[in-house]
Design brief:
Strand content of chain B: over 45%
Structural class of chain B: mainly beta
Oligomer: heterodimer
Radius of gyration of chain A: 13 Å
Shape of chain B: globular
Radius of gyration of chain B: 13 Å
Distance between the termini of chain A: 33 Å
Distance between the termini of chain B: 40 Å
Number of strands of chain B: 11
Order of helices and strands of chain B: EEEEEEEEEEE
Shape of chain A: globular
Largest sheet of chain B: 6 strands, mixed
Structural class of chain A: mainly beta
Number of helices of chain B: 0
Number of strands of chain A: 11
Strand content of chain A: over 45%
Chain lengths: 111, 108
């Protein structure tokens, strides 16, 4: 069973507002991922970290999203100015090496 | 291009079996994972394979053929509660590339 903890479970924001979600990866897992799953259940990779350093990120993440994974603090993903199209399930996952385990997600609704 | 393909739907009968297929074409390969996802919930890890062959884990077994870019998840002795979406995900270049999932419906 996954021990990745995400908060909050649900988040409602108005357009233009900041939206911030947090993730505590499983202890001992150096790699952390953020994915967005839309209403069609399609997964979009956003960003991943290894030991607090960004490994890869997509364009969208560079521009409107900010993420960090500081040592001794939860990882976070923040949308600077929420748009309606950002409404989705945001999934954090961590990995010790090969297997990847997901948290329960933060469901963001932008109204 | 890079892609992970799965059939959209699959139907089977309680007490029998179901085989969920996955084909992939990616620029690298560092293993393939299967997840179960129920409506409105996060994916639950089921299995990870990186070597060819069948990995028997009881209720769930997984098969991989790297030369064919093919894997399947086999569910045996199906129960109604196995009805869910099953996701195939390939690990490559450091991240997971997901298929769109196969919705399995188990009928009485």
């Amino acid at each position: 069973n996954s021990k990745v903890i995400q908060t909050p479970r649900y988040l409602v924001k108005g357009q233009g507002q900041k939206a911030k979600m947090r993730c505590i990866p499983e202890k001992g897992h150096p790699v952390v991922f953020w994915y967005q799953q839309n209403k069609n259940n399609e997964f979009k990779f956003l960003i991943n970290f290894q030991n607090q350093e960004v490994l890869q990120q997509i364009d969208m993440t560079e521009k409107r999203f900010s993420a960090e994974c500081p040592s001794n603090s939860p990882c976070s993903l923040e949308i600077q100015s929420s748009e309606a199209g950002d409404s989705a399930l945001y999934l954090c996952a961590s990995s010790p090496n090969t297997e990847v385990f997901f948290g329960k997600g933060t469901r963001l609704t932008v109204v | 291009g890079q892609g992970v393909e799965q059939p959209a739907k699959l139907m089977s009968v309680e007490g029998t079996f179901a085989r969920v297929n996955c084909t992939y074409s990616t620029s690298g390969f560092n293993g393939l994972s299967w997840y179960q996802q129920r409506e409105g919930q996060a994916p639950v890890f089921l299995s990870y394979v990186v070597l060819d062959g069948l990995k028997d884990s009881g209720h769930f077994s997984t098969f991989l053929s790297r030369s064919n870019g093919y894997s399947y998840l086999l569910l045996t002795e199906l129960q109604i509660k196995d009805s869910a979406s099953y996701l195939c995900a390939v690990r490559n270049t450091g991240k997971l590339t997901f298929g769109d999932g196969t919705v399995l419906t188990v009928k009485p």
